Amino acid sequence: MIVTPSNRAGQIAALPSELTGTVPRDVRLSASGIAVAVVVSLMAVGALVSAIVMSIATLRTREPRERVTVSAQTLAVEQRRGEHPPRIVTYEPGGVPPWAVPLLSGALLAAAAGITWRLRRDWVLLSEGRAALARVTSQKKVHRDKHTAYEITSVFQDLSGATHTMRYDASKTPPPVGTLVAIVYHRDNPRWNTAYPLKFVRPSRAPVRARPSRGERAASFLAGNAQR
Questions:
Q1: Where are the chain's structural domains?
Q2: Beta-ladder partners of 163
């Protein structure tokens, strides 16, 4: 999270230089983003492999075999009438139940899709989103999955001048109330926003600042001498 001193301290708040370039910005995955992408790929492959392996195992348990001892669950026992009445036992072979195949594969694919959506969201926000400065209005210590974090509430204005409230978690030292933090928000839906820097994506490179012209350097030199 990039914190900018508040204007109340007499300083000028400015966005990070990498957010002031043209849009779309050049974006790439961070180290955390690469790790998450690898996990998503493994989950997708695992869903496919588990579906194949479990389907084969289910089919094998249902193949007719002779003189093979298997564990099974008895479903019904029927005693027919007659001189030598046969006893008909209906059972379900043990092993992987058929419903477990789509359940496990579907769960892995759903988890992979959710993580992919998060990566895509951060990518779009940083690549195409608008940058702004949000003022911190409150901070509160909360507990998230056995660790302590800080829920930060801040407000910002979009390009039209409308004010929006955003909340996000900070795992490290929270910014003081009244300071300005850099954020990015979706140009069509400002409620879709996040604090900068993002966890899974980052700019490929900072924009190269243009060198001042000879006239600008001369003006700056004269202004410096005048102040002396």
A1: 1-23+129-204, 30-128
A2: 157
Distance CA 135, CA 156 (A): 6
The amino acid at 169: D
Strand partners, 28: 202
- Could you give the CA distance from residue 91 to residue 94 in angstroms, rounded to a whole number? 9
Q: CA-to-CA distance for 194 and 166, rounded, in angstroms?
A: 8
Measure Cα distances from 125 to 47, 70, 155 in Å. 29, 56, 18
pLDDT in tens, 9-66: 434 468 999 998 888 999 999 999 999 999 999 999 999 998 888 877 777 666 555 5
Q: Is 135 helix (H, G, I), strand (E, B) or coil?
A: strand
**Residue whose entry in the numeric block shows the structure tokens 């009438």:** 81
pTM equals: 0.69
Angstrom distance (rounded) from CA 90 to CA 76: 5
